[in-house]
Design brief:
The chain has 121 residues and is an alpha+beta fold. The chain has three helices and five strands. It folds into two domains: 47 residues; 72 residues, Roll (Outer membrane lipoprotein wza fold like), CATH 3.10.560.
Amino acid sequence: MKYLFAMVVFTLAVAGCTTQSKSRAAAQNAYLAGQNNQLRQQAAALANGITIVGPVQNPRVPWVAGLTLAQAIATANYLDPNDPKEIVISRQGESATLDPKDLVNGAAIPLEPGDVVEIRP
């Protein structure tokens, strides 16, 4: 009887440890899956980001839905003390030239993934 009782206690103890161990492993796997998903999203945003050519501190700006030209230039951190004279947006082989005064006047120019913005001082 003592032997049977000891065997039951041992079995329950081992089963409890296995369950805790599996629970910890599952929690760790879920955490790592979340981390990997976040890294994939960041990599995709950079791969499909906006390239800024000109006097900026950060030439690669991650694209997010609703990103405007003004936001991209602010994120890139324009370094020239003078206002730009011209801004050129290139998209899928086509280019459009903008007057920087349009941005000052509040024009919200949307950008798309892969756009290249050239700021000419």
